[in-house]
Recover the amino acids of this structure.
């Protein structure tokens, strides 16, 4: 079965990105296809490289980063939601004249149409919010 | 049967989720047959006379007016939600159908994918 995952809440105040990660691991472990993970609304904060949780708490950003790269997942971050929340890759930082970029490794800035595409081209779209 | 069902269940202006949900619905309409359902306090997103001037935030609710231009005509709410809140269909800024709980369940069941905001 083809799964897509959407994450609508950030790691600062929700366990949704962590639950989504656990679910993603289970999807792959069960032999299903996971083609895309889309981060929207506060979910884009998951891709913030500067997230620095206490040492005895999970670093959800790093875990997603490693997991995504290991499985070559498409991990897309909505550009409009990301800019609003200060998540920028180097291209956006340059375009908007900001001093730094902070998009974590493995994540990619993309348009909202990719969420719709993920919904239409998967057997199941699972939303974590 | 709609390919994509968008559900708005959060009141407006306290969070940006309603606005981003509407953006997603409008984007969806470019690719697929979409329906929009207001559940619970989400119905306040389209309650008639909103004015965010004192709040200092943008009143995104006016954007709901473009739904017909985007071809989104399947608009629903739950009848019981209206009654619970002392609202009538005439209090809303959109023309939509009030559904029974069974009809809401069927709507969700029939959708290929559901996106909740």
């Amino acid at each position: 079965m083809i799964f897509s995952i959407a994450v609508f809440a950030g790691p600062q105040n929700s366990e949704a990105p962590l639950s989504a990660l656990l679910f993603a691991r289970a999807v792959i472990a069960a032999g299903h296809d996971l083609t895309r993970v889309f981060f929207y609304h506060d979910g884009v904060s998951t891709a913030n490289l500067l997230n620095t949780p206490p040492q005895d708490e999970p670093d959800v950003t790093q875990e997603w980063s490693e997991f995504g790269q290991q499985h070559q997942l498409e991990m897309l971050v909505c550009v409009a939601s990301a800019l609003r929340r200060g998540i920028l890759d180097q291209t956006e930082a340059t375009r908007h004249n900001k001093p730094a970029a902070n998009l974590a490794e493995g994540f990619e800035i993309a348009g909202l149409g990719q969420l719709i595409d993920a919904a239409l081209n998967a057997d199941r779209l699972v939303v974590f919010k | 049967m709609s390919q994509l069902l968008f559900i708005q269940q959060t009141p407006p202006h306290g969070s940006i989720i309603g606005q981003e949900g509407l953006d997603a619905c409008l984007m969806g309409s470019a690719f697929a047959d979409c329906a929009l359902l207001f559940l619970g306090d989400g119905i306040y997103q389209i309650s008639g006379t909103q004015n965010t001037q004192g709040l200092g935030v943008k009143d995104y609710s006016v954007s709901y007016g473009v739904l017909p231009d985007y071809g989104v005509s399947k608009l629903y709410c739950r009848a019981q939600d209206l009654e619970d809140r002392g609202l009538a269909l005439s209090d809303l800024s959109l023309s939509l159908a009030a559904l029974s709980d069974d009809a809401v369940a069927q709507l969700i069941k029939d959708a290929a994918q559901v996106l909740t905001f």
Notes: Chain A touches chain B through 18 residues (CB under 8 Å).
